[in-house]
Amino acid sequence: MTKPLRIALAGLGTVGAGVVRLLEANAALIARRAGRGIEIVAISARDRSKDRGVDLSRFEWVDDTTALAAHPDADVVVELVGGSDGPALTLARATLKAGKGFVTANKAMIAHHGLELARAAESAGAALKFEAAVAGGIPVIKGLREGMAANEIARVYGILNGTCNFILSKMEAEGRDFADVLAEAQALGFAESDPTFDIDGVDAAHKLAILASIAFGTQPAFPQVVANGIRHVIAADIAEAAQLGYRIRLLGVAEDGPHGLFQRVHPHLVPVSHPLAHVTGATNAVVAEGNFVGRLLFQGAGAGDGPTASAVVADLIDIARGEFGPAFAMPADSLGEHQAADSGERRTRSYVRFTVEDRVGVLAEIAAAMRDAGVSIESLIQRGSGADGAVLVAIVTHEGPERAVAQALERLRGSQSLVGQPMWMHILG
Amino acid sequence: MTKPLRIALAGLGTVGAGVVRLLEANAALIARRAGRGIEIVAISARDRSKDRGVDLSRFEWVDDTTALAAHPDADVVVELVGGSDGPALTLARATLKAGKGFVTANKAMIAHHGLELARAAESAGAALKFEAAVAGGIPVIKGLREGMAANEIARVYGILNGTCNFILSKMEAEGRDFADVLAEAQALGFAESDPTFDIDGVDAAHKLAILASIAFGTQPAFPQVVANGIRHVIAADIAEAAQLGYRIRLLGVAEDGPHGLFQRVHPHLVPVSHPLAHVTGATNAVVAEGNFVGRLLFQGAGAGDGPTASAVVADLIDIARGEFGPAFAMPADSLGEHQAADSGERRTRSYVRFTVEDRVGVLAEIAAAMRDAGVSIESLIQRGSGADGAVLVAIVTHEGPERAVAQALERLRGSQSLVGQPMWMHILG
């Protein structure tokens, strides 16, 4: 057997400790599969004294995390520090410059700086891998980069944030409202104490930008992703959607076409006949549509120490086997630079829910705004809600350009009839 | 750009023609992703004159298929001839001996001769790849070999035959019986005129043996797979299962444990909460359970020219990129040789349906046989059926060793009370 692949590990949070545990627990099996052992030689984290539940005494401790890049015994640096810039980025640049492999779970850094890092990796002939950055343990980067490599991919979309899916499916199962379920998710450790990145769709947007780049052969374009979260989904939306045969899921959706690159994170109505409607809890799932293979679905745990460590070590095994190449499926210089698509031209069916005052003429006002903007209504439900006296009007439109719905909502802006903002969601087609 | 990867293509059925179409339609994209073009240089099939709907005039025609192995311009031979032995195997052996790469969709040949071919590939330093052999376009070989490579895999199972799933989900949706739906599936081209390999589970068994080998690091052991099909599933089974919260799916299930390698193809009751319960039509889906990643699901089209061609060309792109290694995830000589597990020790919940004479004492006879064999009954439903006067007794057992159920059925064998054979299915847990 050839000599082992030697790892320097930066970051010893739950995922870092998971990688240590995994490499130990499955060492013999990994050596059989990789054709050589994978061994940690040095570790670094902020706090040396913290108990992480794993024995770290046999590894060399390095105080300065970024110094791992120059560690003479390390072939590969694994970065689990996090943050789009700062020490993680410094470490990534230095590692690749030194010609060592670099494996990371850092979606923010790859979404922001992936192109630069891919170029650096190619210049140095080094591996850059980030399977764990998207959808945790699910090998979806590999699925797109390799499994679907023969296909022109028209669309990639999915449930990319486990926290949001946990909250939405709990709201669905128990008929509860967002704030209430969020509080419980926080208490259970399924949501961060500051949940903004998750519930406002930023985390999913990072992942979507990475998937889109690999699927379409375009440069990662995170600033183009329009991200919305689930804060404004109410229990009544879920109930209305269910009546109509849909479930609400926060989806990242990316499409590439003649009008440019479309990337959006937004709650969607998903038909119950679609597999994503049956993805509950913190599970992630990604769908990609290829021109020969059709629709593929990849589903599994999107977070957690075990699944994320599984993806990190899968990358290490690829490197140990010598089975790696350009990080974004093709050389960085051949990735296209696509303009953001004008979503106004995009044709979809929409769900729009208004909370309105209970008085004469409200419905006529909404209907007129829709008509004047050219929105064709497929169904409309008005329902008096309970305690607070507010009334809900939920509209499903026929397929049409998004611009028309946006114009209708613009016409209604500032109307005295509306209570709060309308909730506009797209229907997955 | 480096020089193209040059292909000799054996077999021009629907999949072969699909590969020709795909390589033409997506040529530019494939060259960007693979770092080089992929070009067909020679083709061979039984009938030169047949119209296959693609222009073959620019390729060199070779009459003797097995001569492709020695073609001086070919780097890789793609075999889409089929058959576990015969010309396909001759071609595989000759190609690998000549040090060329070999890509195939031939599940029967890999299930029977995969170990020998993997050894030959390794001796020659040549690629052997067969993503298309299992679950059509779904990159599940890659998912197990690479995506889950860090995990000890305890179980791999799934819907591996699209014809059977098409028939079962149509029986389910329309309440019809097997023979009736099979005839329609044949008329629609979803089932072969001789459907034996599909409906008796042999096709799924080939695929299962390949998946098990990669998942567990064991030699492919097709002769150990116990294969049963869906011939004896009746509409009433599907209705009873639905009442109990299950759907019936033909599953290939493989487990590796201290008692040996368990491999079985059999109709199962799948809880509606499980994603496989929502897989309908000709779709395939594979689940694998890893000790760190948990449960992963891969789903998509399991057959058809486009999806299968997608998998074949994905293999070619891996080869063009130089990203390949041992076919069964580890060197052939390190694959373990595991005994077939004694399924009697296996603990499951079972569904057993009897068709019985409508007379006094029948239920007591069945109940006594179960009791005497130590089978604990969770629920029992007796239902008079319609026209033919037969009565159904459907039993769901508590978890217990399979041996006990087998013994109960043995006690009832030859009983005058039973009409036909009992139908025994396991409940996916």
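qc> The two ends of chain B are 51 Å apart (CA to CA).
qc> done
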